[in-house]
User: What shape does this take?
Amino acid sequence: MMDRYQELASPSLTASLQTTMSEPESHPEVDQAAQTWTWLMEAAVGGLLLIGTAVALRYYAPPSSDLQSQVHQLNQQVEQLKQEQAMPVMVLNRYRNSICYVFGIYHVGFPNQTPRLRARISGTGFVVASGLLATNRHVAEPWYGDSEADALIRRGATPTLEKLVAFFPGSPTAFDVTPTVVSAHSDLAVLHLEFSPVTRDLAPLPLASQATPPGELVTVIGYPMGVAGMVAKSPTEVYERLAYRHDDINAASELAALSLIRPSATVGHLGDAIGDKLIYDAPTAHGGSGGPVFNSSGQVIGINSAFIDGFSGGTLGISVDALRPLIDAAQKRVPASDVHVMEAQNRR
Assistant: This one.
């Protein structure tokens, strides 16, 4: 019986299964409900995806305006870096001819006696107005701050400036300069520059009107090491001829005749500003005293004054704020001879 049942039942079950798999029975109400449910699920999932995307964009991607602002700031920073890197070359090329090498000779002695002290001075000066140079007081009055000279002066000796001249790049001759105004409180002075067709066309350097924050790039231009520094930069044949000469007026005159009066530029950063004193790390040496200190905008913020030996970050300058009153006072003391020459030139 079991075998009979299997023979009869198996074909029937197989046919039933085959039919169910190949030809599904049609139920319109069920199909419509299933489709509706599918659409609802798809819509729900799509909505959740949209909401998730919006949230991610909101919290993880900056708004378009913020992104543009950041790109703009980065571009500004890059341009500022380019400007700072190009600044030393720009100020040197633009203002070189208005920055002079100052050479002087002075002595300190008693009346009717051979001078007890006689010395040379090398420094730097720069044009601040028509016929006027700014420099340090210890360049205009070389005995200022000299302990040996001071000891003699306290005993009644008299300091005398024998010679003070300025050599400008491109000029084959020197020009006489005369101290006009010296500061009683800081190492600053303004010199009167001999008026001539050459000196009248020298452009004054621009003075900064605002304080420069610490950390900004600074450029110092001057004549460190004086004649020796310029000889070291000269062509080989000139160097061999002048290398062992004294730092004197004749050597300077020879350099001027060969158009080798050329200032040097050093670069550093402003470390601090305390009152009218500036502290920066641009290196310098004797002969660089009185040179202009430029900020990253190409404006003069100070006058190079001194350096702390053995400390690379200890170069000292004096703010132009302390220089302005001296310039104003010096402009009121223009010699009558200069006024006459200037008026004659203006009438042409």
Remarks:
- The two ends are 144 Å apart (CA to CA).
- Confidence is low (pLDDT under 50) at residues 1-26, 339-348.
- DSSP finds ten helices and twelve strands in the chain.
